[in-house]
Amino acid sequence: MSDDPANQTEKLAAELDTTRNSNVITVRHTDPQTGRFAKGNPGKPKGARNKATLMAQEMLQSEADALVQRAVQLAMAGNASIMKLCMDRLVPLRRERTVEFEIGLLETAKDAVLAAGRVTQMVASGELTPSEGQALSSIIENQRRAIETAELERRILILEASVE
Question: pTM here?
Fold first, then answer.
């Protein structure tokens, strides 16, 4: 069976397609007729970089200072595309805005209910977007649950002390 040409081709393909990813050796078995991965073989691990990408990163890393200086020179000389590139790195687009919201100290479940009511009013009036209101409500709910858990623990300790 080891003399079978198809079997030898498959072994050779598996040996040639061996790669190292950190300390793990991954062998990808390919179908010699189609050149595709065998059934049940997912291929490269997610996030694995190919050799060309790793080489390019290494080359760029060694010249990083010179590249940055040249980019700044071109931007200062008026090159609009390089200027945009530099500005995008200096002042990246914000994914979400900072919300200033005076919440006060949440010490009781009643405080949490009042804060949730304020968030609802702010969303209704347009001061907050619905997604911002949802995020704030989630934070308030987490605090309310923590208060509730602490209160239950306190009550249990009191009951246990009264039984002894």
Answer: 0.44
